[in-house]
Each structure stands twice: as structure tokens, then as C-alpha cells.
Amino acid sequence: MSGLLILLVFLLLGGVLQQFLHLPVPASIIGMLLLLLALIVRGSAPSSLKQITSVLSPLLPLFLIPVSVGIVTQKASLQEHGLALLAILAISIIPGALVSAVIMSRGRKRG
Amino acid sequence: MISTLLHTPLFWAALTIAAFLAGQQLYRITGNNAFLPPILTGIVLVVCALESSGVSYSVYMEGGGYLHMMLGPVVVMLAVPLFQFLHTMRKQWLRIVLAISLGSATTVLCAVALTWWWIGDEAIVITMHSKSITTPVAVAITEQVGGISALASAFVIITGILGALMIPPLLRMTRMNDEQTLGLTLGICAHAIGTSRALELGPQQSAYAAMAMTLTATLHALVLPWVIRLW
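Output (C-alpha cells, whole complex):
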């Protein structure tokens, strides 16, 4: 349970910092970076945190279903643009994948 | 009686969990088919339930909100795997950071430019920025910058499915399919769904994919809100 408390405390810290500094970055991301910083300073992840991670990770997709179901409110825009959006998503993967792969495999050959 | 049930928040929370479990079963039965990630089946089942019962999304969300609330702590939790990957990437960090930032910038810019050109709707263009980052982060950013979070989630899931299907053959054709490159590229362009595809390809691929996915999400979360303000 203390792992969950750690997550909530850092989420809260992220929210406070976001309000205080008027950052456009989501509170949860600020909380994540603060936690990452804390882990780096500490040098290792406490076992309670590792435990909650292994419990919550497989459930992640479940937590995303409610917001995704919101697609029912977007019927009009999907009817109008659905195919174009699908094509855009498919096409845009190719240049991105090639750029990442070239950088990664070039570097390897030299190194 | 049924109408009371349909307006009970807990009913919809329970139905969402049941739909997800059914999705996991289907995924397992079909031999981990990349076309059928459990989240997709779950969404389709809940959407069908809403459509056939005529219950509105806002009524659904009174129950769905219980689960949605967990997204905040789950995003914070991503620090744990990221911390574990820092060690692995120490030797190649420059190459990895370059591949992640330039690769993901390329795919996002292409998508945004095409959307602008073909569709031109401002809210959709803003939403398209988050298509390559893992869904919880994409939803958080989209809510922050004024896009449509329901569409963001759909874009991310479709990108993941397409990426997991297209990237392995694409890299095989261009002969860049060594384990680390393949894993990294799957993580950058196909986030969590790409990462679960990488898990089937091997441990190296899967570690690099998970690392690339988390780093891409972090980078985008930090940069996108400022970029979108500039437009």
C-alpha cells in the first residue's frame, strides 16, 4: 500500500508545482519526473513501489477504456474524416520509423 | 428496474471491467493477435452496450470515472520502468536520444501536416500531435492543450496496431532489423502496442521498445504543450 501512497503524493506534488509555476505540462508528468529524480537521488526503487508497479501495469489498458469510449461523442467527425484519418495515421508511421531506424543502426555500425 | 440499473454508476464500472476481461480472453484465444489488443475489444464492447441501451456518455462516465481516476497515479508510476532503463541506455544514450527525438518528431510532423492539409479542423490537428505517445500520457496532454481526448485515444490505439503490423516488415525490407533497432523503432512509433509486439520478438527488442516508449512519452509531454502554444 505504501507504494500507492508514494504515487499519490508525487501526483499531488506535480499538481501543486503545476499550479504554482503555471506550467502547461500535465500534473501527472511533473509528478513522474519528480519521482524519477527522487529515484535517481535514492539510487534504487523501494520494493513497495516495484510491487505497485507490477500490480498496476497489467491493468493500464483497463483504466484507458472510459476515456476511449468517449469516441461515441465524435461520430459526426469520424463519419466525415474517418478514412482520411486512418490513411494519415498509416502513412505517417513510415518516415518516422525509417528515421529512427537509420539513426539507431548507423550508430551501431560505427560504434 | 433495468432503467435504474442502467443509471447506476457502479453498473458501468463493472461492465467496463467485464469488457476488458473479455478482451483479454479473446486476445489469449486468438494467440495474441496484434489486431485484437484487449483494450480495443473492451472499447468496442462498451460502445455497443451504450449504443444499444441508449445511455449517454456522461451517464456512463459517472461510473467509468472511477477507473479513469487511476490514470494520474499510473502516469506517475512510469518513472519506475524509466529509472530501470537509465542504466541500460548509459552507453548509447546519445544515439538513443537522437533516434527518439528525431524519429518521433518526423512521424508527428508528417501526421500533423497531412491533417492540416486534408482536414484542416483545428481541434483534430491539435489532437494529432499526441498520436505517437502511450495513451495515458496522450490523454493527459490532450486535455491540457485543448484537443479531443477521446479522439487522441483512438489515434494512439490505431497508430499502435498499424505500427506493430508495418514496422517489422518495413525494417526487414530495409535491412535494419537488428534486435535493438527493431525494438527501439517499435517503441517510438507504436508505443505500448508496439512494445507488446516486441515482447513476442525477444527480450532485447522488448527492453528497447519499453524504454523508447517511455522516453518518447516523457519527451513529448515536456515539449508538445509549448509547441502547440507556438502555432
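Residues 75-110 of chain A form the longest helix (36 residues).
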